[in-house]
Amino acid sequence: MSYVRWSRRALLGIGASSILAGLAWRRPQAQQNLLPATPQCPDSDDPTPPQTEGPYFTPNSPERTNLVDEGMKGDRISLAGFVLDRRCRPVPGALLDLWHCDSTGAYDNVGYRLRGHQFSDAHGRFVFETIVPGLYPGRTRHFHIKVQAPGQRILTTQLYFPGEPGNARDWIFDSALLLDLTGEQDTKLGRYDFVLDLA
């Protein structure tokens, strides 16, 4: 497979909406083109901060990149990025387990609705297709995720949306976990690169 080499600046700039609009959001392989083959290294080598798991994690989620069921309400979003080590080297085969509430703020604690896992590719890339989570009572808008490099300890953390009024009131919120968010409605892209402190 060949990948389009876009810079991070291009992805996060004005042209991102038109780029995303040209992709079929339901096709995971097309979504891989959202990221260049080489990551843009973060400004520091600080590892991604951990956060609480919360009460609603369910183990053994299905392996899948698309968490959206047919007819599901909510704005679509592609959650994409890289898994890197502290020297900005890609981490292939890292497990990423994502879960979040639906557009009304409700979690599925019986099945695996809006839950799934995948593994980063040979370049450390991942892409989930899902919806923007609603507002869970007492919290700002967020995703839950676990990231684990092969044979390493698990990073459990949360990702947040910029510009949310609830960010300032949420005692768990950490600005280091803000998504780079671009696009509108069906073309939203939330970018985050995880940095793991590997042994």
How far is the N terminus from the C terminus?
32 Å
- The rough form would be described as globular
Q: Supply the CATH architecture.
A: Sandwich
SS elements, strand count: 9
> What is the H/E string?
HHHEEEEEEEEE
Give me the CATH fold name: Protocatechuate 3,4-Dioxygenase, subunit A
* Average of pLDDT: 84
Summarize the main sheet.
Answer: 5 strands, mixed
Describe what this molecule looks like in 3D.
Helices cover 8% and strands 25% of the residues. The chain has 199 residues and is mainly beta. The strands form 2 sheets. Strands 1, 4, 7, 8 and 9 form a 5-stranded mixed sheet that branches. A hairpin with a 6-residue loop joins strand 5 (142-148) and strand 6. The chain is globular, with a radius of gyration of 16 Å.
Please outline what is shown here:
This protein is mainly beta and 199 residues long. It is 8% helix and 25% strand. The protein is globular and about 40 Å long.
Features:
single chain; 199 residues; mainly beta; Protocatechuate 3,4-Dioxygenase, subunit A; five-stranded mixed beta sheet; four-stranded antiparallel beta sheet; 9 strands; 25% strand; globular
How is this fold's topology laid out?
Blueprint: H1 8-12, H2 16-21, H3 28-32, E1 76-85, E2 95-99, E3 115-119, E4 125-131, E5 142-148, E6 155-160, E7 180-182, E8 188-191, E9 194-196
Parallel strand pairs: 1-8, 1-9
Antiparallel strand pairs: 1-4, 2-3, 2-5, 5-6, 7-8
